[in-house]
Amino acid sequence: MHAGDSGQLENFDLADPALFADDRYLDVLARLRSEDPVHFHAEADGPGFWVVTGHADVAHVYANDELFSSRLGMRLGTHPDAVKAVADSMLIVTDSPKHVRVRRLVGSAFTPPVMRTLENSVKGVVHELMNDVLDTPSCDFVSAFARPLPTHVICSFMGLPRADWDLIGQLTTDGIDSDNEEVRREANSELFLYFSEIIEERRDSPGTDLISMMIRAASDAPDADRSPFSDVDLIVNLAGILIGANETTRYAVAGGLVALAEHPQQWLKLQSEPDLVAPAVDEILRWVSPAVHAMRTVTAETTLHGRRLAPGDRVTVWTAAANRDPDVFPNPDEFNLARMPNRHMSFGYGRHVCVGARLARMEISAFLEELRTRAGSIHLAESVEWSPSNFTRGPLRVVARLRPAASPMCPLNSRQNEEGRYAHQ
Ligand code: HEM
Fold first, then answer.
1. Rounded to a whole number, what is the largest CA-CA distance in the chain?
2. 255 in contact with ligand 1, CB cutoff 6 A
């Protein structure tokens, strides 16, 4: 029996990473959603926080950004000084009205027309990475495919030299993930320096890349009473984009592969029905829910589901629970690629809804298209290792064997050369 099936709600510790190492956390969240949907969670070394698990309540918190502020931190476990250093500058920890301005700055590079220009480049990255995966008898799919995919896509969009991509990926990971504070600090200052130099270069010779677009948007005449964006604003938000894109997309893609391997009937359907790709992207996002929770701070007294919340209270919204709310999703624990409608909140909701959602969808869609046309079978060779995190959760390691399909129908007109490799024509 899973730990979530028994025990007092008060004894479950959502701040304990170990709970997220396997899928016990889903049982715990399901119990909270049905028994105490706005639950007060005590903390050994803090004032405690509210846990919101139902779809409608999670949407309510996300949507009411004046009542539920982001600028004191948007997740559990961050140091207040670290948040203070970037609050009111980094999009995700900024409240309106500043948020509207910063969102315009960052959003200028993520409009539908700009995204359309990236389609071929995303498909190219996916195709190249899949070559390596299909070339080896078995590999760790995370390090071979899911980890480099978002880094390569975003570095290419930023117009960074190919030789720097892996370094940037590593610095982004070290800057947020490392247990060692010194490593985190060094990685962040290296990223900071790197971007200050690139910004200087792009000012002298602008291009059509993300950084040039943001520099242009930053210098668009500010109103008389508003200060222009500084280089620090630009750098902090470039780092915010890297951080936002990195683990979430990696976990969605790797978690998607695991789900397909564990649901062979769904995999067979995907292979034979091209129209399933679009709904499959959303079902994978719902199923994996890579962004597990977000946090807000109450700004004025309010009630939620009959509970009284006071100014200063921290409220956590659990997307992973909302995404399996039976009031919204029939048979929520069924992985169903054809699920429609699919009102998951994996990208959040309201003003802070993920600015990179279109790009993430494009990457997952290109991955599924490439997989369904080029891979015949997916076999998990070892048990999957999951990141024990209550914030971004997904597979850390997926040792898999992907056999090439007998006759690949590659969307990029690839052909199999004499050595059995795939190359662009
Ligand atoms: C599967 C992939 C992704 C998932 C699950 C995801 C999830 C999320 C969620 C839940 C939020 C809202 C957080 C909150 O309200 O506090 C968010 C915001 C954000 N995401 Fe994503 N994200 C993904 C991919 C990306 C990509 C590819 C980028 C950029 C290239 C990106 C950049 C951002 C940024 C900058 C924000 C802040 C938006 C704001 O505060 O207005 N994300 N994301």
1. 70
2. no
